[in-house]
Structure of Bifunctional diguanylate cyclase/phosphodiesterase:
Amino acid sequence: MVYPVEALSIAGLVLSPCVSGAAYFGLHHRTRRRAMLPVSPRCLTDALTGLPNRQAFSEWMEKNLSTRQQPIGRKALLMIDLDRFKEINDDRGHSVGDEILRVLGRRLRHCMDEKKGEFIAHAGGDKFFACCSFSSQRGVMDFLARMRRVLARPVRLQGGSVAVGANFGVAFWVDGAPGRDALLTRAELAMNCARSSDQQDVCYYDPAMDQALRHRLNIVDELRHAIARNQLSLCYQAQKQISDKTIVGFEALLRWEHPMLGAISPVVFIPVAEETGLIQEIGEWVLRTACHAASQWEQPYRISVNVSAEQFHHHDLPGLVREVLETTGLAASRLELELTETAIFTDMARARAILYELKDMGVSIAVDDYGTGHSSLGLIRDIVFDRIKLDKLFVQNALSNETDRAIIRAVIFLGHSLQASVLAEGVETEEQFAFLAAEGCDEIQGFLLSRPLPLDQLVATGKVRLLAA
């Protein structure tokens, strides 16, 4: 469930983590003064792409973006982030990713005109820097157009070709302002804005981005203390059997009520928690709190807890689950962990081992938002799930979109063929309920039957009864 939040909160989400560009790329002024020793050209060249590396870029910035220059001039800095590169690495392997970087590096070297003051460097991973001098906006546009053409062309590989594409953030340095560190930060802010946009792959720095960044940093700082200050809470949304609408379980949903900022949507703070590593502490709190609450219920309902990709791959999840179950006394058969396809596909071999260890304990596993990830059939083939959760987007469009209806029918058939139950999320109308019932869906969850409720209201409404003290 997503609640309305302040516009700046959404802006904070749109701008993914914006660590200072200067700090991120090791360009702080205190590190610029190195021993005056000859530097081998090889030390300034990235071995993979053949382009100047980060050290070379730092030295270029020192030389070309200095107020000591006469005349000072005007320059544009482009920060470039390859699109879909992580997905390509995950799906096709790092050797393919390296080959793509080699090809793109060669193309970028050939399209650069050093006589015009152009400079391109590989910042590492899937990021590049490109700089150009300009006398008019047209010069920047032409330079940008060349970069876009080079990176948009598919890369031919053995067995086919791969289209990569890129996102561009543009910031301007005019008459010595802003400083070099601020210029890097502005370019990174603009690039992250482009990366988060569905409509454009190029964004120019705007001062409003600074305000959104400050808001996001404030969210990070406040989130660090949210557990200790008892600002986090859980709501529980009923999951019901479609045949008779009886409750079979509840999903635990995290909420954050800040005394000054009000209710902050999970859409805003969960990505922040994942990016900063706070999701480990928060995720453990959610698991422990939900299991403790469920252990106090008289009815043996299952409790479903979401596990993020960061939790799944950077924590001893089976060990944590085992300890929480022992501490709270909750039966393992009553705990269900919900994982997205994306979380599992990050490292399939490790994911398979973790999931089988959890299932050996008796914990059930659900794949959440099914159909919105990638390689879904391969996932279902390799890992046996206890439950498949149909994404609410399919449910909400089912009555008006034949394709979504076909997907729902296929998922229900697939789930039943594999002895997995199918739960539809986001059911809000009687018409949606009737369609799902007619198609043989097993369980539903949504506002039609129940909104998420805090534990005290859950008890007050009679949905659960507590064990006698």
Observations:
- The chain has two domains: 7-32+39-215, 225-460.
